[in-house]
Amino acid sequence: MARRKKLPSGVRKKNGRYTYRYDVYVIENGKSRRKQKETPSFSTPEEAYETGVLIKAQQITGTYVDEKNLTFSEWSDKWVEIYSNLGRSDNTIKTKASKLNVLKKEFGGFKLKDITSLQYQEYLFRLKKEGKKKNTLLGMHSAMRSVVKAAANQPYKIIANDFTEGIVFPEYKETLIELKSKKNKKVNYLEKEELSLFIKTAYELPDCHEYAETEKDSLVLRQYARVLHILAFTGLRIGELCSLEKEDIDYENKQINVIKNLYYQDGIESFTLGPPKNETSIREVDMTNKVVQLFKDQEFELKKLKLMLGLDVIYKNHDFIFINGVRKPGYPLSPLAVNAYMKNVLEKAELPKSLTPHKLRHTYTSLSAEAGIDLSSIQRQLGHADDEITKTIYLHVTKAKRKSDIEKLEELMSSVE
């Protein structure tokens, strides 16, 4: 009678197929315990054993991921729940959730770990072929990238690989109408002389009786003037500036540490501090000597303002640099209040009322380009790696500068025979 061939260590036979059994460690109720798992089944014991050896090697080197069996739909819902607790605005959350709902129609029932790069790549190409607009597809791809990247990285690590990594986004050629529209599109920002008038007017309003009846009113309004001044001179977003606390200002190195953003929906008392807009928004913003002085002036006047408001009623959970001095003393300054103040400044200075605090970033881009600062440095200061408006402003300003340089060259060369 022939002896039955011994199976390799760890290999099990069931219903004519072979699996490899291995141990993983899981945390339950705060305690670590060993749990046995098995590989998918194979037709030969050698295949099962080779897969098991690979898993063992990954466990030894720390590269093994105990992939979970969550479907794309289940993980998407969980991710939206996590994302909504990071302080993102309701509109941002709704937009992401809306894009994911579309993606769930295609991938919802698949286990996240089983979706392949080829499957997703072909899906994007198919949508483009079906006539999906570029911006729609970009939004969906952005949502998919966010969800899958979170699943593949710490602290969740529920899949071993990010299947969106290296995906080629479908190419869209711009139509003639789009090219003409792009060329004729005007981006609003203040020229140097206009900015000078804007800032001068911003500091005049706190002394006008129609805006400020008391010294406390003047102190509150001078905050707004400094905010507008700093926004134009640094390129900060209004939410980033209003979230700043004393510890975020590095006077020695003349830098602002941007690590958070202000979010709120139902009044400033419901504010939350969450991560900035994206990863590139976490940065150190350089300050000129003028901006350094503006922050020091604000700290000095803030002490006076707090005394007038009453130290016993001041909100003390955060040490904000710019504070609400009206309804909620000590709470962060409201971006909506800054926007309202800016409208008064624009009206008084007879400047375009379409400008907003956010568009002062465009002014910063324009002045930086005129000063000869390269595009990558401007983008780094603004906190985004790629932005079409920034490029448009930069090219517009540098184009005018190049034309001026050519005229200077022509003047110089005119004396050469």
Automatic annotation (TrEMBL):
InterPro entries: CB, DNA_brk_join_enz, Integrase-like_cat_sf, Integrase_catalytic, Integrase_recombinase_N, Integrase_SAM-like_N, Tyrosine_recombinase_XerCD. This is Integrase. Keywords: DNA integration, DNA recombination, DNA-binding. PROSITE patterns: CB, TYR_RECOMBINASE. GO terms for biological process: DNA integration; DNA recombination. Coiled coil: none annotated. Belongs to the 'phage' integrase family. The lineage of its organism: Bacteria, Bacillati, Bacillota, Bacilli, Bacillales. GO terms for molecular function: DNA binding. Pfam families: Phage_int_SAM_3, Phage_integrase. Residues 185-407 form the Tyr recombinase domain. Residues 70-152 form the Core-binding (CB) domain.
